[in-house]
Specification:
It is built from 17 helices and no strands. α4 packs antiparallel against α5 and α9 packs across α11.
Length: 319
């Protein structure tokens, strides 16, 4: 993890100090690395919630509640580790304790200790639920280490032992990372059916789109735009759909953002730009109006005008 963050910071500082012609490429790399990190931490948080629910529903044999587990449930992982390591338990309860230590170590980035705990539980227990969470933990560790093939191996083992939407989601993320979009779409579709998780619709749509299932991808993105009020994610989706040439969808994202924030100059600019690219001549007039007070909108208007002038049909929609 430290190496990963170090690479990101190094590239960021390099681009910041010396912008060059390939800055866009480097910025795209930074965005992809940041998104991968967010995906990983999101997966870990999802796993934590599932683990809490699962452990709380296990039978009396696995009922293990201590000061360490209380701190763990409060996400005070450093303190939880201190208590969990000094608690005494026997038999299957000790493997539960080791699971807690494994996940707490994972969340404080002590990956070697985390991995050792998960391997210990695999050796010490024959319980499929315990094995399920040990494999899930090992899979998350390999996701953090960017060892995606190993992560898939562990996640698939976990998936065979118990129904857990979080495992299915992580598998979808892993398959997406290795560009196996068909499998990614299958996993993320299964997750979408079982969980009402709006946030997953963006990556689900991406997997579908890259697997050439574009109609379903548009549907997933449209559902996200209709239900999400996350400004940052809506703006990201607007730019993403613009990148793929889905300008009407991008316009819809900007419309949703304007419902939340009003018709700000930046949102109107994004809306008009995509409308113009979609062939709506009225948007060019809007860009012209915005360009009277906004330099970036003026540049957009000039780009549209230049494109029109280069059009072989000789038509200039601006004049």
């Amino acid at each position: 993890m430290d190496e990963w963050i170090g690479k990101w910071n190094s590239l960021y500082q390099s681009v910041w100090k010396s912008p060059v012609n390939q800055s866009d490429l480097h910025i795209n790399t930074l965005e992809q690395m940041a998104q991968q990190l967010l995906d990983t931490w999101g997966s870990m948080d999802e796993a934590l919630q599932i683990l809490k629910q699962r452990v709380s529903h296990l039978g009396p044999l696995y009922h293990y509640q201590t000061e360490g587990t209380r701190l763990f449930n409060e996400q005070n992982f450093h303190e939880a580790l201190h208590y969990l390591k000094n608690e005494l338990a026997v038999g299957e309860l000790d493997t539960i304790r080791q699971l807690y230590i494994g996940f707490a170590s994972l969340y404080v980035e002590e990956l070697d200790e985390s991995k050792a705990c998960f391997f210990y539980t695999l050796q010490a227990s024959n319980d499929p639920f315990i094995h399920h969470f040990a494999y899930l933990g090992l899979g998350l560790i390999e996701m953090v280490n960017q060892q995606v093939e190993k992560a898939i191996l562990y996640m698939e083992k976990a998936n065979c032992l118990a129904d857990n939407p979080d495992v299915v989601y992580n598998l979808g993320i892993c398959y997406y990372w290795i560009e196996s979009y068909e499998y990614a779409a299958v996993c993320l579709r299964q997750y979408a059916v079982s969980c009402n998780d709006v946030d997953s619709l963006v990556i689900f749509g991406l997997a579908l789109y890259k697997n050439n299932e574009k109609d379903e991808a548009r549907g997933a993105w449209m559902e996200y735009a209709e239900t999400s009020e996350d400004t940052e994610q809506l703006l990201s989706l607007a730019k993403l759909t613009e990148w793929f040439g889905e300008h009407e969808l991008a316009c819809y994202c900007y419309e949703q953002l304007m419902l939340i924030h009003g018709k700000t100059g930046d949102l109107l600019h994004g809306f008009a730009w995509n409308k113009a690219l979609a062939g709506d001549a009225r948007a060019i007039d809007l860009l012209d109006d915005l360009g009277q007070t906004d330099v970036s909108a003026k540049q957009s208007w000039l780009l549209i005008k230049s494109a029109a002038e280069l059009d072989g049909n000789g038509t200039d929609p601006v004049n």
